[in-house]
Every structure is written in C-alpha cells, then in structure tokens.
Amino acid sequence: MTRYIGAIDQGTTSSRFIVFDRTGAIISVAQKEHQQIYPEPGWVEHDATEIWNNTVEVIAAALKQNNFGCADFAGVGITNQRETTVLWDRNSGEPLYNALVWQDTRVDDQVVSYTQEGGQDRFRALTGLPLASYFSALKLQWILDNVTDARAKAEAGDAIFGTIDSWIIWNLTGGVDGGLHVTDVTNASRTQLMSLSSLEWDDSLLKVFNIPPTVLPSILPSSHVYGLSQIEAFPDVPVAGILGDQQAALVGQTCFAEGEVKNTYGTGCFLLMNIGTKPQVSTAGLITTVAYQLGSEEAHYALEGSIAITGALVQWLRDNLGIISSSADIEKLALEVEDNGDVYFVPAFSGLYAPHWKESARGVITGLTRYVNRGHIARAALEATAYQTREVLEAMENDSGIRIKELRVDGGMVANELLMQFQSDILDAQVIRPKISETTALGAAYVAGLAVGYWSDVEELKRNWAEDKRWLSSMDESHRAGLYSSWQKAVTRSFDWVSDN
What we know:
Elements: E1 4-10, E2 14-20, E3 26-33, E4 45-46, H1 48-65, E5 73-80, E6 85-89, E7 99-100, H2 108-118, H3 124-127, H4 136-146, H5 150-155, E8 159-163, H6 164-172, E9 182-184, H7 185-188, H8 203-209, E10 218-220, E11 223-228, E12 238-244, H9 245-252, E13 261-265, E14 269-276, E15 287-292, E16 300-307, H10 311-321, H11 329-334, E17 344-346, E18 364-366, H12 374-400, E19 406-410, H13 417-427, E20 430-434, H14 439-452, H15 458-464, E21 467-471, H16 477-493
Parallel strand pairs: 1-5, 5-12, 9-10, 13-19, 19-20
Antiparallel strand pairs: 1-2, 2-3, 4-7, 6-8, 11-12, 13-14, 14-16, 15-16, 17-18, 20-21
Helix pairs in contact: 9-14, 10-12, 12-13
C-alpha cells in the first residue's frame, strides 16, 4: 500500500491540509480562509473556533479528493502562524476570547513600560527576543488581565494557553476528552517565556510577565510522535511533527547546513539563517529562535528577520483601496510603468519589525507628485518587500560574518516574476525558487515523516529538493545604491508617528 504524510498548515489568513508523497510532491490539497477581525485600530483577532472547524473541513476535503482513508497515512505534521495567542477553557473547550494575532499591537503600552524598566533588550540574552508587541507573553498577559474570569480560571488550572499549534493538536487529539496540551521548541521560542539554552519555561520570565505556570503546555521536540488523531474523518493517525511556519519553511527548503538562508514571502516576510546548535544573540536587530529539534538530537537555532507587512500590503491595495481586484493583478498593474516614479511605500501598519523594531512607526508613501499613478503605487508596494528583505539580509550578514550570495525563496509571492527579479537586483545576489514552493507545509510533513520513519534522515530530504528558477542581478551598482538610499530615507519618515499623546 502506498502511504503518505499529511500536513496541517494553519496560516494567518487560511487553513490548509496538504498530502505529500515520498518525493515531496503534492498529491492533494484543500484550503479555506478565515475571518480577519479588527475591533480597533491596531487590534487583529481570529476566531479560534472557526480556525479549528476550518481545519477539520479541509482535512475531510483533501481526503475526499483521492478517496483517502486514515490507513493511507503514516503520520501528520502541523505548522502554524506563530505568536498568535489563544486561552481556552480546559473543561468546555471554548476560547475565553478571540485569538490575538501576531500582528496585534494592543500591548504597545506594556512594551513601553517594560522597556522603561530595563531596556528593549532586557530579555534578549535569555530568549533571543527584544521586547515587542509581536511575541506571545504580553498578549497572554493582556487576556488574563482584561477578560472576565480569565486569570481566576488560569490560576485554578481551568484555563490553558497555547499558540495555534497547541490549540490544533489539543483538539486533534481529543479536546476535552484527553486532548494533548503540548507545543514544540520552535513555537515555545516565540512566546518570550522560554529559555533558549534550556528549552524550558523560565520561572523568572513567568514572574515578570505574571503568567501562571498552570496555563503552559509541555515543550517537546519538533519531530516526535505526540499521540494519535481522534477526529472522525482522520482517526488514529500519528501526530508526529510541529513547527512554527517559518521554521517549517527552513526545513522544507532543506536548509540543514549552517549558513543556509531562506526567505518566505507571505502575509509578512521572514528570513531565517541556520546557525547550528549554539544560540547566537544578534547585535544587528535580528532575533534568535529555535530552528528545529529532530527527536533526541540537539536543537538547531536560527537568526531571523521578521517583516510584518509584505503580501498583506498587496491585500490592502485590493481590499482597502480597491486598485486591484485580485492579488495576482498587482504584477500586471506594476508592469504598466517603467519604474517606481520615485515613490516609496513603507508599510509600517503595525510598526517596523527587524532590524528597526520601531513600535511607534506607521505606514507612509513618499515622493508623490501629480505624475504618479496606480502603476507606480503598485510597483512601489512590490519593491517595498524587496527593500525590507535587503535590510534584514544586511543585518544577517553583519551578525554572521557570512556574505550571502544565494537566497532560497518560497511562499505565495514567489510567483511574481517582477518582484523576484527586483529582489535579485536590489540584493546583488542570486534568488532561487524551488520546484515545490509549498515549503511550509512540506517542512511540517518532513519532521512528521522523520519521526515515524517514513523518511530515513535529512540526506533523503535534501535529495528531494530541486530548483525551479534562478534570478540573477542585472542592475548596475550606482542605480542600486540610489534606489536603496531613497528607500532608507523613506523609512526614517515612518518613525515615531505614534506619540505618547
């Protein structure tokens, strides 16, 4: 019997279930979007129950496409939007509040308060992370302090916390009837509550953030047989892998060697460099995160540069301004003009992440004249993704001492040929797209498959990777320098828009 590996890919805008074969080829896929909830400016929420219901639906839909049964699967892995925070009732299974999404900025005041007490980097040596609204600890603190009965239930052991991976696996393995309350090292490293060196919840951080330890899941390796699926459509399949989405893409791109780098172009952009088995604290505005842990092996770490708004900017042009009818139209519109018309779009909608970490920044469009039209705005929006990527890549080179000449890329935006060529041009580096671009789900499948013996080792995974297309820089250095200088000037215009007043 031919057997497969399934991957639950729970992202910021949708949930998917993808079935892979031994070569890493996609056999079946189903996807469903969920609602984006914006109660106030800067607040971003998801309905965690909707996400779980959609997950069950896409699993059933993908199975139906090929008349799969549970016996066709050796295992299933989970990958997820990171930092997004859920607190739910252990006894009823109901969330106590909507999930606070990683983009949510309602805890900006707490960031300021904690920073004033000890500086933005006060926890960086311990967690690899600066103080920012991005991570889970302050989001969880907000729910505990602002939702009726949340803290009382948490302290009594009746409410439990998780990032989306924990919410999915708890429901997948039984929910109120014995569901597993676990997470993996990659997701735990995004909470700002775990010690990078010990890979355990840190008591001093729990005390500082006033988090009851009773709410926390157990931390386990990324590749590990956690338990069996218990849902009706997919019973008794080993749940054997968990990776945060960007770490999953690193694994899916088979970046197992120290110094290898990938960039995922999705709602945001996320560059990760494998730095081996020793965590390295960044001095250039990056964060240090756990890359993966395969079974009982040592954990591997990564330097990461997180960019909040890239693909989301294209969605904003579609949904808020209506200048395109679908995201795919952005390239055609941008090609109507020869250049950006000296327009630069800094999409700091929820502040700037790496390498600036400016919570008070907000989005700006600079260089507007009567000459500028929709095409220039579209082109500037695409170029913003490439400029932000260069900022992070330069920081990565400064931290690692490695000149990056090759960037492996994945995610929805890599189908945009104009963007990929400009990315190569502005980096003066080769940009390489793999044949299998669904690397996030593939990474989750890989760690699950390794745990159950479907794949023997990482060398077998490396043999699956194949190049689809490579872009080479064709821009002269003076033009590149001029464009980047103007971008840097535009970035400074976005700083400190939000004031104490």
